From TrEMBL:
Signal peptide: none annotated. Residues 53-279 form the Agd3 CBM87 domain. This is Uncharacterized protein. It comes from Monoraphidium neglectum. Pfam families: Agd3_CE, CBM87_Agd3. The lineage of its organism: Eukaryota, Viridiplantae, Chlorophyta, core chlorophytes, Chlorophyceae. It comes from the Eukaryota. One of its GO terms (molecular function) is structural constituent of cell wall. Residues 294-685 form the Agd3 deacetylase domain.
Amino acid sequence: MGFNYDCGVGPQCSTTAQLALNWMLVPRPFVPIPSPSPSPPPQPRPATLYLQHKTLVLTTPGFTNIDFLEAIFKGYGSPYDIVRWDVHSVSPPKPDLNALLYNADGSARYSSIFMHPNLEAMSLMNITEINILWQFQIRFGVRTVKVGAGNPELGYDYSGTCGGGAEAMLFTADAPPGISGVNVAAAQPNYNGIWRCPGKPTANGCPLQSVVGANPYNPNASATLPVNCTPTPMIKNAAGYTLATLIKYQDGRESMGFMHECAAWSSTCLLLGHMALSWVNQGFTAGERANLISVQTDDFFLSTDQDDTGTQYRVSPYDLQRHLQWLSDLKSGAVAGITLAPNSDLRIDLPFNGNGILENSTKLTEITVDGESCTTFPDYVALGCNCWATGYQACPTTAPVFCQHCTKDWPKPLGTGTNKVTSLPNTGLWTPTNLNPDPLAAAVLANTGGITTGFHWCHHTFTHENLDNVTKYDADKQLSLNIRMAANLSLSGRDVFSHSCMVTPEISGLMNGDVLTALGNNGITCSTGDNTWRHLLNQNNPHQMLYTTLASSNFAGYAILPRWATEIYYNCSLQSQNLALYNGIYSSQLGISTFDQLLSREADRVSYNILALRKDPHMMHQANLRVEGGSRTDFTVGSSLLMKWMEAVLIRVTNLVTWPVRSLKLDDLMAAFKAREARDACQPSYRLEVDSATGAVQAVTVTSNGGACKAPFTVGSTVAVGLPASAKDGTDVTAAIYRVDLAAGASTRVVLSNAQTWVLPPLS
């Protein structure tokens, strides 16, 4: 009964009210609301469940904060798909969930699911879609990770204080490091810049708000869907409020939930991503990780002009022996505040210039080559050039030709230029007798204190000539002379020496086809770049090297290995010098900094890139090896700029993860990049076999979907893997890496035993 007019106090409305009351009191037969038809009983699981070991990322159109997840997946090389769920089914249309989750044979297309945001809430999925997703999770034991979920959806209230400032959090005893290597005992994730509203557990379960179809009386309306769950706090703040949790649902499903957003700029989000990936993959990670800190100190054997004194500094044998003792102390745990994981192995790489020995031997004469960059020429100032940093393409066509060609990325025409190496040394005089007057050469020849075998070595040209605009002849002589010096120092035959990858002076010559031809003729096929120059980076994949092209360099296929610049400067050997120069550069942005603040910022930067699983080495210079506060007769005291930088980085990194930390020589770094490139071209896929009665992971089938490669996976150290011993990399004693040798298009089934039990909820 209804009335199409308003009513108030008065006789007419009183009559209307009485009429309505009489109508409502008339007895009528009870009409029950029909109950929904019971769901058919679930099909029993087959004896063996097959799951494609791949991650499904469910998100929404235009949402970008899944970038931290992509950084983790790409770092490991773990297969994943991103599906953008448009609730309005416009762009892109919503997928058929059954077709998305199941293969035609009924096996699972995914073994784990990430959601960011939580699509189960916020009216993004209806009740039918949620049930399909949940039944898939139950049937195959697929765990989920929910990022940016509301507190009630995870079983918590909003009783904590919201904020986005700096605040260190603590992992609880229930936080599951698994094979992630996250140091839950020491790490204190810093949530600076991450908005969060921590809370306390409630007795309300994990209700999902605004679910279309959750109202049994109106299937087109939204309602709260009650969900029974047991939350277990995983990360808390100092006040005891929770920010991340593990959830066990009544139906047996399991989730990890974060009550905050995340993004790739945050090292905390990367750290949490490692833990989440290990947990959601239940102890079997497709891909691999490495903790690499490789430092090259360019210009070895040369002397370097100091920033503020007008003097030069050249490293001494004492400096080198002090560094070797320090590296040994790091490994043994004798350096305060640093405990390295077993199998850690740190070394320093010495890119050397052989002419420096001739300069310091009384029995030999160095050669003189004008090796400066074109920016030091008088014409650069006289002509008003300013294109060095902006690049060749951005340089105005009206600029003088010299200015257009004096850019870091100018592809010098082949066969042009003037030879600057106009005289050659008599290499027949490079005998031990004539080299020994140089103290450094003598120490290398005698391997004094293990100097020769305790460091890595690579080429840096003979005289340090800038190669951007030089001739093929000059480049050939710069390499062939340095190769001869390496042989005369007995370096070439040692396994610490790199023959194929080098550091060019001032990161030059990489756009010069004449230079690249000459380097190749001398066995050099790779050089380090500088990540501050965009044109020297692989923009498509930071885990791969960049290869030159005819367009970029008039030479195709030369490898440029990415390398980080540091805030330890080439012309500084003392802490005071380096800090003064740092403040001269940054004081307008940062104010006056202390050296500890400089080191802390560097530790932040480097640890972020380590968590992103970047392999790129770091640039320093020989003057940075100068030991301050030491004693020439005691190799156990004193510290250099490099040592202080490394210790700050190691303290930060080892507080975050328990991964072994290693340094690789340049040839081995190049090989690591090439192996990753082959793996990306191989596009390996992984299929797990799980015993449905016990949850035992029995085998994995690894398949090449492209070229040949060694396809890696990572498991706990107690897992028995049916592969030859040579396939195992046991550097990390808690998480072994196995690499499956695959021909193009081939598959290999690998038997597993004693793997982590796959959690299979009971079928209701």
